[in-house]
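Quick one, T. Sequence first:
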Amino acid sequence: MKKVVLAFSGGLDTSFCCIYLAQDRGLEVHSVIVNTGGFSDEELQEIEKRAYALGVKSHAVVDETESYYEGCIKYLVFGNVLKNATYPLSVSAERVSQATAIANYVKKIGADYVAHGSTGAGNDQVRFDMIFNILIPEVEIITPIRDLKLSREAEIEYLAQHGVEYSAEKARYSINKGLWGTSVGGKETLTSHETLPESAWPTQVSETESRRVELTFEKGELVAIDGEKLAPVRAIQKLQAIAQPFGIGRDIHVGDTIIGIKGRVGFEAAGPIIIIKAHHTLEKHTLTKWQLSWKEQLSSFYGNWLHEGQFHDPIMRNIEAFLADTQKFVSGKVFVELLPYRFQVIGIESNHDLMSNKFGSYGEMNNAWSGEDVKGFSKIFGNQVMIWHKVNNEA
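C-alpha cells:
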C-alpha cells in the first residue's frame, strides 16, 4: 500500500482528508502536525487521539518553534515587517515553516504522496504546493478539499456518513495559533463591512488597568521583560501572555492574495505588534538615516516575498544577512504602556542612542557647527535645484 503524508491540524478539512485518503483513495495515511508555538502539550495529545480515531497508520508531532524563530521570525523583527502596515505575517510565516518541515518528513518516511487540506480560494494552497514542488518535486501532491470543491457543510455531512460527528458551531470560525500570532476567519471576514464579534476572539479582554513593561533588546532580539532574562522564544510567549488580555493587537487585515483576489482575515497578535513597534522605535534612535531607509525598502520586499511563499528563494538569505548586520548596535531598553485595546511606546534607553545632547538638542542648541557653517552648507545643498530653476524659469 502506498504512503501519503497528510499535513494534519485536527480541524474539519484535515479530518475529512484522513478518511477520504484512506477509504476513497486506498492509501496508508501518516499524519503529521508541525507545532510552531501555538499548541499546548494537552492540545497536541488531543489532536493525536483524533488522528488515530480517524484511522491514520501513524501520527507525528514535529516541533519547529525554535527553528521557526531562528529562521524566520527573527528577521521579521529585524525588518519591522508588517504587511500593509498592519499584519505581522502570522500565518504567512508559519506556513512556509510548516511546509518545509512536512517536506522533510516526507523524505524521512519515504512517502509516495503528500497531502494538505487547503481550499482552492486561499494563499495556503500556493505556499504548500510551491514549497513541496521545490523541496520534494518527485512526490505527488493530493489536495482533496480543493480538487473536490467541497463546502464545509459537505465535509461535515461526509464525516457523519462515516460515523464522525463534527459540530457545525465549531466550524463557524477557523482559528490558527502560532508563536507569531493567531488568525481568525469567519463569515464576517468574507465581507467588506463586518467585524468579528467579541466572542470570536480566542483571548477575551480581562485586563482594564494600565501597566508598564520594560523590554530589553540585544542586537535586535528581545531578551528580557521587566529585567527578567529570557530566551527570545520564551520572551515572545511571556509578552503575549501579559498583553493579549488587554485586547491589544486585534485587527482585520485586508490584502492581495497570491491568486489575485482581495482577502480579509482577523488576527490577534499583541506580542508581535508590540515587539515590532518597540524594536522600530529603538532603531530610530540607534541607526542612521540611510540604514533606516534601505531597511524599510528591503524589509517590504522580504515581507511580500515571504507572504507569497517564496521563502526558499536565495535572495531571502541575502536580505537576511543585510538585516542581521544592521542590528549590531540595536541594543537597549524600550518602555511600553499597556492599556485596554491599545499601547504606547514611552521611550528608550540605549548606550548607542544617537539622540545625544553631547552633539546638540534639536530646535534649541548645537555644539558641532556655527551659524556660518550652516549658511555655506545651505547654499551648497540647494545649489543644483537653484540652477534648475534659473535655467528653466528663464528659458
